[in-house]
C-alpha cells in the first residue's frame, strides 16, 4: 500500500467519494477550492477489467488543478506506464499526484477552519439552551447567557412536577437551590474541543450545568413521598437481663438524597415530570454478621464476671453490669460497632467503684465569727472508666483470662480556694427567717432542719442557676426525711418531706431581698399566715422546683441556721443594691371557705379554713437614694375549705 492508500479492492466495492466545496465567510476562508474528484470504478470504456488488453482508460477530472486528460493505468503485466508503454499507467500516476494535492488542500482547509472555529474562547457553533455563545470570550458568553436566562425567568422559577413511585408533587426551584450555574456552564462549553468534521460542518448544543441543594431537596421530597415503602430495620443485639436478643436487619425502600439530586439535575429542563427513583437500601450489617456477634461476643461477654485490679484494691464487674453497658446497636447506616459505654458502665458500678475511688471536695466557705472564711477543697482519685471500657472489649469474648487492670487518675475539685477568693464574697446582703411550731422533736421540724443542713454552705458562681430539687435530689426516707402534712389535691395529708416548703419559702425570700433573679417558684394554693403573701414558694419532687440565678458579678454563699422554732437563710456576697423592699396592693376578690366533712382516720387532718384572695407584691430595687427597678408578682389564693373529720 502506498502512502496515499492505493489498495487493491474489487472494483465493485470501491466507493465513489465526492468532495464538495466548503463555504466559509469570505474574510476567513482559504483561497483553494476543491471540486469533484471521481476515483476509478474498475471498468475501462471498452468494458474490460482494469489492466486488461484492449481496455480504454476512464477519465478523472480536477478542474481546479487545470487539467482534464486521460490518465494511463498499468498495463496487463503491471509495469508502470512510461514513454513507449501503455498510457494507462501514466494516467494513474497523475491521479495519485492529484489525490496528494487534494489531501494537502484538505489539511490546509481544515487548519484554516479550525482557526475560524476557535476564534474567541467558546468554539463557534456552540449554543446552550438555544443561546448562541460561539466565538465569544468567556466573559461575553457569561453575560449573554445570564441575560437570556433572566429574560426567561419564569421558565426557571416555575414549580417542577415530580413523581416518586405512586406519589406526585412539585418542588419550587428557589426552595431547593435548583438553578443553572452560568459560570460553570460557560467554562464547560469553553473546555470542549470539537473534532475535524464538527469543525467543518457541525454545531453543538452544550448541556447547562445545573446545581441543587441535595439536603433541602431531600427534605421537600420526603414531604411528598411520605412512607412509601418499608422502613429499614436496623440490626442490634439487646439484652433481656443477661440473655442476648438479636434484631435482624431489613432493607428500606425510599428516596436517597444523591440519586434524587441527580434526577432533578438531569430532568429539570426536559419539559416533563421528573421521575425520582426509589432505592432499596440494605443495612451495613447482615443477618449472618448479627448471628456471629451473638455467638462470638454477646453470649461470652455475660457468661461470667470480669475481675478488675487497681492500686487501691480489686472489684468485679458482674454480668448484669456488662449487659447494661455493652452497646451492640447500629448507626444510621446499619453498621454495628461493638463498644462498652463509659457512662453506662459507671452508672452500673456505684458500689464497686466506691471501694477504690476517693471523691474530691470543692472549696467552700463558712461563716465563722460573723465573717466568711474559705474552707479549702481536697483532691480525689477516680477509675479511668474510658480506659476500663476500652480494655473490657478485649476480654469479653474470652472464657478465661477475664481480668483487666484499672487505672486511677487524680481528680481536682471543681471549685478551688483561688476560685472562692476571686468571687468577692465579703458581706451579708440579705437574711430571712420563718417560724415553726412543735419544737425540733416533730417530724415537720426535722424535715426543715434536714434540708437546711443540706443547702448550708452552697456557693453559687456568677451566672449560675441554683435548683433546689437539683441540689437535694429526691427527698425520701433514705435521705432522712419523715412523714409530715403536705397539701395534695387541695387538702392536707401525711407525706414524706412535709415542711420542706417552709425552708423553700425562707430561701426564696432571702434571694428575693438579695436582689437575685427569680427563675422558678410557685406559691401555695392556700395562704398560710406563717408566710408572707405572694412572695412564698412550695416545692414537690420532681414536678415543683425553686430556682434562682446569680445574675450579680460576685459569688453567692447560702448560709443556713435554725433554732427550735425558726429557720434562717442568709445570703453572703457583695452588695449590688442599697436595699430591696416590697410594696403590697390591697387584697381583692376575697372568697370564703366551704365546710367539708371527711371520713375519720389517720389520713384526715382537720383545718379551720382560710379566706381566698388575689394580691400583688412589688419588688423595689433601691440604689443611690432612688428606686431604679420594680418587679410585680401576683397570685390568686384559693379559699382553703374547713375540713372536719366525721
Structure description:
The chain crosses the membrane at residues 95-119. This protein is 27% helix and 25% strand. With 646 residues, the protein is an alpha+beta fold. The chain folds into three domains: 1-117, no CATH class; 288-420, Ubiquitin-like (UB roll), CATH 3.10.20; 423-645, no CATH class. Helix 2 crosses helix 5, helix 11 (342-348) packs across helix 13 and helix 15 (443-455) packs across helix 17.
- What percent strand? 25-35%
- What integer value in Å does the Rg equal? 48 Å
The backbone outline, from C-alpha atoms, is extended
Count of domains: 3
Provide the residue-averaged pLDDT: 83
Q: What is the count of β-strands?
A: 36
How far the N terminus sits from the C terminus, by CA atoms, comes to 130 Å
User: How helix-rich are the residues, as a percent range?
Assistant: 25-40%
> Which blocks of ≥5 consecutive residues have pLDDT under 50?
1-85, 101-109
Order of neighbouring strands in the sheet with most strands: 22-30-29-23
Q: From the helix content, strand content and strand pairing, which structural class follows?
A: alpha+beta
Keywords:
extended; 646 residues; disordered N terminus; 36 strands; Ubiquitin-like (UB roll); 4-stranded antiparallel β-sheet; 3 domains; alpha+beta
